[in-house]
Structures are given as C-alpha cells and as structure tokens.
Q: What sequence folds into this?
C-alpha cells in the first residue's frame, strides 16, 4: 500500500498538513482551496499572483501609464463639488470610527464650551460628529443637496468659508445660551447653508419663499419637548448664514475680492473672540 503521507506533492506547499490535488496553473505546485486564486484558466498560487501583479505594475510604469493613485487623483479632480464630497466622506468615516470606539470619538471631538479653550479643535470637529444613524443620514442628505448647489454657485473656497463660519455661529450661540451642554452635528452649518442660499437666490431675483418656510419648520422642530435638538446651534447658524450670504451678494464684483475676504476674516475673528469670551465666563464650570 502506498503511503500518501510520504508523498509531499499531494499536500499544499503552504499548508503541509492539508492534502490536495489542486495544482497552480502557472508553476504546477499543489495548493489547497484557501491558497488558490481563480485565473482565466485554472487557479494560481499566492506567489504566482504576487509575481503577476508586480510584473503588471512594472509593465505599466515602463509603458508610461499613470499609477492607480494618479488615476484616483485625476478622477477626484473631475468632481465638480469636491468640498461637499469631502465633508460627507469625513463625516461618515468619523461616525463609523465612533461606532467602533464605543463613543470615544464623539467624546474627544464634540463641541463643549468648558473644554474649547484647552482643546480648540472642538470648534471645527463638532461639525463632523453625529449621535445616530438618522442624525448623520438627514444631515448628510442636506449637505449633499444644498452643498452641491452652493458650491456650484460660490466656488469651493467660498462654500467652505460659509460652511465653517455658519458652524462657528452655531458654536457661539451654544456657548452663550447653553454653555454646559455638549453638542454634536453639522446642523448649525446646514442651517447656515439654508439661510445663505435664500439670500443669494433673492439677490439673483429668484423666489425663495418656499426655502424660508422649510427652514422655519425645521427650526421649530428643535423646540419640541424631548426633541434633544440644539435649536441654539440652528439659530446661530442661520444668523451667520444670512450675514455671510449678504456679504457674498454685495461683493460679487471681482474688484471687491479683497473686501470680501476681509469681511469673511472679520466674521471669523468676531466669532472666535465671542466663543473665547464665553469660555472665560464659564471657566469655573466643573467638568463631571
């Protein structure tokens, strides 16, 4: 009787304890089902697969073809609303990481007035963290709809200025009205987008009353008992959205570019100074 245990050709070369009769189509070595990769004809072993990929990349470079990273960069460059896409992508990634961390990410990134002086990143990161699936789903849907329209109207950098200024407006309102309450979400910035879009549409002669009604109805939801919604951030975002939208509508001329930038910087300085003053006011707040 033949001792198959002594015939190593009948066993996977990577797993000597697994008997197999599957051969790599390229090198002829025995491989088990875990080690095989389907090919155009038959299957290949892991080493042959790595060699083929390396050869493919070498031929690709020799032929002058762009790398995968270059292709990805070119595709991203073709996207018209880059800032909107990045905001949504970052928010979704942070939400997923927060789930995996058991909520630790939200604790480190949420906006909270008593900590903003020593952890200033919370001024911005609070816009990217969310409490639940529905929270991030509705917020990102609003960013997707209004973000794309406003980014097309204003351009990427003006849109980003509007988004973060409205977010800071929401932070300031929270710091002044409810300084002891941690806040998460992009709602303040989103309400700023609503308000700015209304102002810009009106400046272009378009009827935007329906948007004003929608914004008002959404604002009222924050006052419902048990809603657990920061209406303060919404109000702050709306105020800054109106102000920033007004600035954009009155400085459209290219000759007013410096004035526009100066006014936006002034808004940011006032907002940060206001938040700083609120932080100093609650400096003795005991963090539990």
A:
């Amino acid at each position: 009787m033949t001792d198959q245990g002594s015939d190593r050709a009948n066993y996977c070369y990577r797993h000597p304890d697994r008997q197999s009769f599957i051969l790599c189509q390229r090198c002829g070595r025995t491989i088990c089902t875990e080690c095989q990769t389907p090919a155009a004809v038959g299957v290949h072993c892991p080493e042959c697969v790595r060699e083929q990929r390396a050869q493919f990349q070498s031929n690709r470079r020799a032929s002058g073809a762009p790398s995968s990273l270059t292709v990805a960069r070119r595709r991203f460059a073709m996207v018209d609303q880059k800032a909107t896409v990045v905001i949504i992508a970052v928010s979704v990634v942070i939400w997923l990481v927060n789930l995996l961390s058991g909520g630790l990410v939200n604790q480190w990134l949420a906006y909270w007035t008593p900590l903003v002086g020593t952890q200033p990143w919370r001024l911005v990161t609070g816009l990217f963290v969310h409490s639940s699936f529905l929270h991030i789903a509705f917020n990102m849907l609003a960013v997707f709809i209004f973000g794309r329209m406003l980014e097309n109207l204003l351009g990427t950098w003006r849109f980003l200025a509007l988004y973060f200024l409205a977010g800071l407006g929401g932070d300031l309102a929270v710091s002044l009205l409810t300084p002891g309450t941690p806040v998460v979400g992009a709602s303040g910035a989103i309400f700023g987008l609503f308000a700015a879009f209304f102002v810009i549409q009106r400046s272009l002669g378009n009827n935007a009353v329906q948007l004003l009604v929608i914004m008002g109805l959404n604002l009222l939801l924050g006052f419902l008992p048990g809603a657990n919604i920061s209406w303060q951030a919404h109000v702050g975002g709306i105020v800054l959205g109106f102000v920033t939208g007004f600035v954009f509508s009155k400085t459209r001329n290219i000759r007013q570019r410096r004035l526009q930038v100066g006014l936006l910087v002034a808004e940011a300085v006032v907002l940060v100074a206001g938040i700083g003053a609120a932080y100093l006011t609650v400096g003795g707040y005991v963090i539990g």
